[in-house]
Amino acid sequence: KSLGTLFPPSFILLLFSSVLSCDGVQVTVKDERKFAVLFSPVVLQCQYSTHSTQTAVVQWWYKSYCTDRTRDSFTFPESLGVQGSELGSTAHLDCADKSRTVRIVASGQGASLTLAEHYKGRDITIINKADLRIGELQWGDSGVYFCKVVISDDLEGKNEGQVELLVLGIWF
């Protein structure tokens, strides 16, 4: 016998939709690593999907690098003592939060936006539901940014993604 003869079609539809919603919120970032020029604008893209009808709270968090990535970007790997197999290393990311700067950048829910004290007065906003737009990059903006989505009735799934941002200088 088929499922349609054992169960009414509305029950089968309900069963499949509840299975699909078990995945919970899913956050994805477009770029895992982004390079941008000092004083230029940048958009860190973050998207999420959810079956919830609740309005999400989108938070962007900043964590400084564990080591100075600006210097690394202008140095040949050989002069740093780095072997070819170590080029994909994440040592600049792997340190305890207590040994680096960690702070919230912005929090938004619907049309409401709150900037953390450190970022007040700067052209920073959340656009397109969850993208972080920084209007004019500063040296201290290099680091790892976390897009975190909190939905009160959707606590399962992957609710954050991260983007590395390296701010590069301008030379004439």
UniProtKB/TrEMBL annotation:
Q: Which Pfam families match?
A: V-set
Which PANTHER family has this protein been placed in? IMMUNOGLOBULIN-LIKE DOMAIN-CONTAINING RECEPTOR 2, TRANSMEMBRANE AND IMMUNOGLOBULIN DOMAIN-CONTAINING PROTEIN
Task: Provide the species name.
Answer: Astyanax mexicanus
Instruction: Tell me which UniProt keywords the record has, alphabetically.
Output: Signal
So which residues are the signal peptide here? 1-24
Provide the GO biological process annotations: pancreas development
Record's keyword annotation contains Signal: yes
Q: Which InterPro entries match?
A: Ig-like_dom, Ig-like_dom_sf, Ig-like_domain-LISCH7, Ig-like_fold, Ig_sub, Ig_V-set
What's an example GO cellular component term for this entry?
Answer: membrane
Q: What is this protein called?
A: Immunoglobulin-like domain containing receptor 2
Superkingdom of origin: Eukaryota
Domain Ig-like stretches: 9-149
